[in-house]
Amino acid sequence: MKKHVKKLVAAILAMTMVCAMGMTAFAAKSPASSGIVNKVVSAVDKNGNAVNVEIQEMPQEYQEVAAQIRDINTIKALLGDRFVEGMEVIDVRNVVVVGDESQVNWPIDITFEVPSVLTTTKVAVLHYSDEKQAWEVVPSKAGKGTITATFDSLSPVAFIVDKNTSASAVGNGSTTSPKTGEGMVVPFLGTAAIVLALGAVICLRKREVK
Questions:
Q1: Do 163 and 190 fall into the same domain?
Q2: What is the pLDDT of residues 104-160, one digit of tens each?
Q3: In this predicted model, which residue has the larger pLDDT, 109 or 171?
Q4: Together in a domain, 23 and 112
Q5: Is 177 within a domain?
Q6: Strand, coil or helix: what is 39?
Q7: Band of the pLDDT at 169, cuts 50, 70, 90?
Q8: Predicted pLDDT of residue 181
Q9: Do residue 200 and residue 158 come from a single domain?
Q10: Is 164:123 a contact under the CB 8 Å cutoff?
Q11: How many domains are contained in the chain?
Q12: Whole-angstrom distance, CA of residue 83 vs CA of residue 78
């Protein structure tokens, strides 16, 4: 009888391990979608024509300027009176036009999906100008889970959000989706425990019958 119990326990433990490994792999973030700002909701040129825009990881050539813009003193100097306490850079991404950029009728308005942003959230968008070799502030506005900005050219873009007026700060909840697999572990372990208990009861009953 003890052998049967041991086999049952071993089977449940194996099942638990396999499922846990599966959930871990499923929840892992793809390298292509690292960071906070990963999605372009829409992009249109000055004539209202759609533009194919892509968000990329920061190239090596821009690593230094990307690190520079994360400094709070740099942000304060660039934003001036627009800066409010609580603002910080939440992401710096390389934004590019896919295809022939010479065919684009600039400027273009790009709407990015940005979790936790509300229409009342104070935001700012900075663009690194290759021509000026400097960061510059571009027109921007917050939406529900989005930030829309206007660009005359594209390259590294820094997204600045006032955490004090974001969704999580004002108590309106967050637009951030829960991590895949999060919250599944506890129910699964509970189920495994129930199965184990039932198996033990069945084995004990069989033993009593004998």
A1: no
A2: 999 999 999 999 999 999 999 999 999 999 999 999 999 999 999 999 999 999 999
A3: 109
A4: no
A5: no
A6: strand
A7: confident
A8: 47
A9: no
A10: no
A11: 2
A12: 9
Q: Which domain holds residue 17?
A: 2-28+186-209
In 3D, which of 195, 183, 188, 210 has the Cα closest to residue 27?
A: 183
Same domain, 59 and 154: yes
For residue 54, list its beta bridge partners: 96
Same domain as 94, residue 24: no
- The closest alpha carbon to 112, from 35, 42, 33, 32, belongs to 42
- Is the overall model pTM greater than 0.85, yes or no? no
Q: Is residue 176 in some structural domain?
A: no
pLDDT in tens, 65-86: 999 999 999 999 999 999 999 9
> Is residue 74 a contact partner of residue 68, using CB atoms and an 8 Å limit?
yes
For residue 107, cis peptide bond before it (omega within 30 degrees of 0): yes
Give the model's pLDDT for residue 130. 92
Residue 91 resides in a domain: yes
SS3 57: coil
Inform me whether the pLDDT recorded for 166 exceeds 70.
yes
Q: Residue 9, Cβ neighbours under 10 Å: how many?
A: 13
CA distances to 7, 16, 193 from 21, rounded to whole Å, are 21, 9, 18
Task: Take residue 23 and report the two structure tokens written for it.
Answer: 């959930």
User: Do residues 207 and 1 touch, judged by C-beta distance below 8 A?
Assistant: yes
pLDDT at 98 over 70: yes
Q: 149: how many CB neighbours lie within 10 A of its CB? A: 23
Please indicate, yes or no, if residue 178 is contained in any of the structural domains: no
